[in-house]
Amino acid sequence: MTTYTVPEILNEARTHYCAGCGHGILHRLVAEVIDEMGLREEAIGVAPVGCAVIAYEYLNFDMSEAAHGRAPAVATGIKRSLPDKLVFTYQGDGDLLAIGCTELIHAANRGENITIFFANNNVYGMTGGQMAPTTLEGQKTLTTPSGRNIKDTGHPIDAMKLLENFQSVVFLARGILTSPKEIAKTKSYIRKAFEIQQQGIGFSMVEVLSQCPTYWRMTPVNALKHIEQTVTKQFPTGIFKDI
Amino acid sequence: MTEKILLCGNEAIAEAAIQSGCRYYYGYPITPQNEISAYMSYRMPQVGGTFIQAESELAAINMVYGTATTGKRVLTSSSGPGISLKQEGISYLAGSELPAVIVNVMRAGPGLGNITPSQADYFQATRGGGHGDYRTIVLAPASVQESADLTKRAFVLADKYRIPVMLLLDGMQGQMREPVLIEPLKETEQFDKSWCLTGCKGRKPNIARSLYLEDKALPDLNERLLKRYAEIEKREIDVDQYKTGDADIVIVAYGTPARMCRSMVDLFRKKGVKVGLFRPITLWPFPYDLLEKTSKHTQEYLVVEWSAGQLIEDVRLALGKSKPIHFHGVLGGRLMKINEVESKLDSIIANMGAHI
Q: Does the distance separating the beta carbons of B66 and A81 come in below 8 Å?
């Protein structure tokens, strides 16, 4: 029988995330991997602007905020200064693929030896549920009340496809959090990405399709089904690049 | 470096940064400051430092933020339009109490303007530029040597007060070449670095942040900053006063216009007119009290700047309506000729009449 305990690396803070949100699981996975690798005292994380803006309330190691979208640039500045530390950003879809797309692409192209965790829930959560770059076609949001119309707003951006052709990108994977089996798989991606960074090989990113029951207007259980049945059609899971 | 070498202002700033122990430079091309990044691109590797040509000024200032969280000395540079882009990051640096040095080699604006030397970013530099209640220390050199010296001072002030410091110079200062001696910075102070992100070994985690959601936490931050700003205003004001002690007319100017005006002081003194030059070296904190002191004997003031009139507002704040304050400026895109200043002084003197 497995006994689940709070990793040393997680603070016992009361969560501000909504019921059924994926961030809590993803925070825990990142924390567990860092704990298992014995790297808590070597880790420096960069929090985004968005729902995870106060990730440092939960993660018990050194962290920095970043202006909206600029986390890969902030992480670049940290990693260049402290190349031996484990440096990662934790960003949402608006932060990474809208306002921060430039910083993402150029950090990736420079092959910065950092890791990005990308929580993709197809919506802006913090600001009340607006359309994100990854909002699905037809998905209703605060700013697409009739459903996302790709003719006016473009197609959902696929971060794996966006980055896989960059030669300096060494590891790309996308996971989900819908079942213990999928969570274990996602955790293995996180570990792989950190191992790659530890070996100094280069830029790694793990995207996680995260559920947002609140702004999807779904129960938590239906939100998980929605990921398995619908979101993964647009954003398939698996390892996209592993050099 | 132990002997004088011939450098332009931009190169002198870059070398002075190296001699101050700065090992991180992040920049994006824009004229008239490109010599800084060109210099850093070969000089940083020589000293084991890091040079990145960033994808934008936004990225550059946020790389600065990242390195600043680790407590290392870090530099970025730009000019008007690029500094506008950096303002977001400068506000975050101020809010997160991070030390960094930012160089603005001013060109003419607004908008894309052009690359003519200018001083039209005075408001942006001294009034914050970005969002929120914050200050940056602003240093204004008037020679290549002073550009180097103030760069060293900028790094010390940034560390001492955990504040972004801006070097503000017109394009002429950045481009002109003069002999300059740049010796290594002599460190006389130890700075507290216990707040840095270095990995939390043996201590509680450190957080670099400007978001304060808890009750009273944000007012507390602002109060802490205000106290620090008051301390800076008390200790760090610097001004170069040239023959102001007995002056009937005081010219107020900084940067290249101040150098032009210095020669006017000598010219008019030879004619028997007591002219002096008041050159602020710190634009923030501005030397209000020292300027006001001159009004005990000075009758008229002339503000000379390469803008439509920005420095003049601080001169008015210092003097109120007690004395006439004249203005001579140039609009963005035009250079000022020295005989314009002479003519302006002539007309002031003619109108002063018998009391000279």
A: yes
| CATH number reported for the structural domain that contains residue B267 in this entry | 3.40.50.920
| B132 in contact with A, Cβ within 8 Å | no
Domain ranges for chain A? 23-242
Strand B239-242 to B275-280 pairing: antiparallel
How many of the other CB atoms lie within 10 Å of CB of B352?
Answer: 15
Mean per-residue pLDDT, B46-72: 98
Same domain? B72 vs B147 = yes
Residues of chain A positioned with their CB less than 8 A from the CB of B205: 56, 60-63
- Report CB contact under 8 Å: A77, B69: yes
pLDDT at B170 over 60: yes
Residue B1's pLDDT is 67
B246 with B125, same domain: the answer is no
Share of chain A above pLDDT 70, in %: 100
Kindly state whether B347 is in contact with chain A, defined as any CB-CB distance less than 8 angstroms.
no
Identify whether residues B162 and B265 lie together within a single domain: no
Last residue of a domain, one of B190, B207, B235: B235
Contacts of A56 in chain B (CB under 8 A): 205, 207, 209
pTM: 0.97
Task: Give, in order, the Cα–Cα distances in Å from A123 to each of A214, B165, B188.
Answer: 10, 38, 52
Q: How many CB pairs under 8 A join A and B?
A: 127
- What is the rounded distance in angstroms from the CA atom of residue B271 to the CA atom of residue B166? 38
- Residue in A with minimal Cα distance to B98: A64
Q: Which residues contact B48 (CB under 8 A, 6 or more apart)?
A: B23
Same-domain status, B125 and B183? yes
Burial of A9 (0-12, 13-18, 19+ CB in 10 A): buried
- Identify the pLDDT of residue A241: 98
Domain ranges, residue B246: 240-355
Please report, as a single letter, which amino acid is at residue A177. L
Taking residues B58-79, what's their average pLDDT? 98
Q: In this predicted complex, what is the ipTM? A: 0.96
Of A40, A67, A77, the CB nearest to B67: A77
- The confidence score (pLDDT) of residue A7 equals 77
Which of A9, A11, A65, A112 should one mutate to test binding to chain B, selecting the residue with the greatest count of B CBs within 10 A? A65
CATH architecture of A23-242: 3-Layer(aba) Sandwich (3.40)
| B164 and A CB contact within 8 Å | no
Nearest to A63 among B70, B92, B205 (CB): B205
From B24, B197, B202, residue closest to A80, measured CB to CB: B24
Predicted confidence at residue B353, as pLDDT, reads 55
Q: Is A10 on the interface with B (CB under 8 A)?
A: no
CA distances from A225 to A135, A210, A228, B242, B327 (A): 17, 12, 5, 78, 71
Q: Exposed, middle or buried: residue B269 (CB in 10 Å: 0-12, 13-18, 19+)?
A: middle
A8-12, A180-184, B284-288: least confident range? A8-12
In the stretch 68-127 of chain A, residues with CB closer than 8 A to chain B read 70, 73-82, 85, 102-103, 105-106, 110
